[in-house]
Structures are given as C-alpha cells and as structure tokens.
Amino acid sequence: MTIAVDFDGTIVEHRYPAIGKEKAFAIDTLRALSSKGHRIILWTARDGKLLEDAIEFCRERGLEFYAINSNYPPGALFGDSRDNPSKVVADVYIDDRNLGGIPEWTTIYQMILEDGEGKHRHRHHHHHHHRKKSLLQRLREKFK
To answer: What is the DSSP letter of 18?
Structure first.
C-alpha cells in the first residue's frame, strides 16, 4: 500500500527548521515496510534546502523514499504534483498532527501489517457465491 509520512514531529522530534532527534524505531519501521513492498512517500511542508536536509538525514540511515511530496518518483512522466503537496493520495497518512497524536512506531508497524493482511483475507473470501447458490436453489425449489 502507499504510505505518506510526515517528517517533523513524526520521523524526528519537532525542532523545525532544525532536525530533531529520530523518534524510536521510526526509520527502522519505514525501512521494514518499504522492504515488504509498501511505497513510502515523504509528505512534508519542508522545501528547498530544508527538504534536502530531511531526505539526506533519512538516506544516511538507509531510508530511501518512493517519492517526495508526490505520488510519482522524481522524473516520472505522469505529471507532477510537487507544487501541491496536498495532492498526495495514500492509503495511510502518518502524521503527528493526527487527532489524538501519533502512536509509537512499533504500534504503527503492527497496525499497517494487520491492515494489509486484513485486506488480503477479505479478498479471498467468496461468501457471496454461497449466498447466490442458495438463492438459486431456493428459486428452483419454488418453481419446481
């Protein structure tokens, strides 16, 4: 799934424009999710040099983003929403401005894994087929 993640107050403590201390397990969690095939998009109000600093901070710790403030990797041909960060469409937004604050990163990891597996389980169940069959059977019995 596509996961949009804020930087200040989310990956690191809020010290904008400086970069705060990394929040416990933030980058490890994002790297693990990325290696499971999730698309991690950096979704931040930072731009210019301050944005570069944030990207570099994560890169030094082994985290590369799928895209920055956009649904498309840099240089993609699908139009560019970089000038409008609010256009990023994701399945999950991880942001400290969330109502109720942000959970611990270990909790976030569990939540996303469970969500992904829940969707899988959902997809493979064909309950409605059984229902249709019994409806057909009922109709057949009615019009025998």
So the answer is: S
Question: Nearest CA to 6 among 85, 113, 111, 76?
Answer: 85
Adjacent-strand bridge partners of 42: 5, 68
Task: Say whether 55 sits in a helix, a strand or coil.
Answer: helix
- Model's pTM, two decimal places? 0.74
Dihedral over Cα of 33, 3, 13, 44: its sign: positive
What is the rounded CA–CA span in Å between residue 2 and residue 92? 7
**What pLDDT is attached to residue 119?**
57
With contact defined as beta carbons under 8 Å apart, do 4 and 93 qualify?
yes
Residue for token pair 């990797």 = 73
**Pick from 4, 27, 2, 1: which is nearest to 95 by CA?**
4
To 10 degrees, what angle do helices 26-35 and 105-124 make? Answer: 20
Q: How confident is the model at residue 133 (pLDDT cuts 50, 70, 90)?
A: low
Q: What is the pLDDT of residues 39-80, one digit of tens each?
A: 999 999 999 999 999 999 999 999 999 999 988 887 765 555
Task: Report helix, strand or coil for 15.
Answer: coil
